[in-house]
Design goal:
0% strand, mainly alpha, 73 residues, extended
């Protein structure tokens, strides 16, 4: 499994991203390049840019009770 904290793996990730173009076809799934890159960027934005609102306690509880089991299993 590749690790984003390994310098060689990170270089490979960067090379793969640099090869993408607007006409690139997905290997699996339905996302186009712009959607995929936006999806990958959300984690960065949550940590560093703080532009996504944090969940309140009730929302966290509901997600944990109902959604987590579906996603994990």
């Amino acid at each position: 499994m590749k690790n984003a904290f390994n310098q060689n793996d990170t270089a490979q990730f960067i090379q793969r991203v640099e090869k993408l173009s607007s006409t690139s076809q997905p290997n699996f799934g339905k996302m186009d390049v712009a959607t995929m890159l936006a999806h990958c960027n959300v984690t960065y934005e949550k940590i560093y840019d703080n532009i996504h609102p944090k969940s309140n306690a009730l929302k966290k509880l509901l997600l944990k009770m109902f959604v987590k089991n579906v996603v994990v299993s």
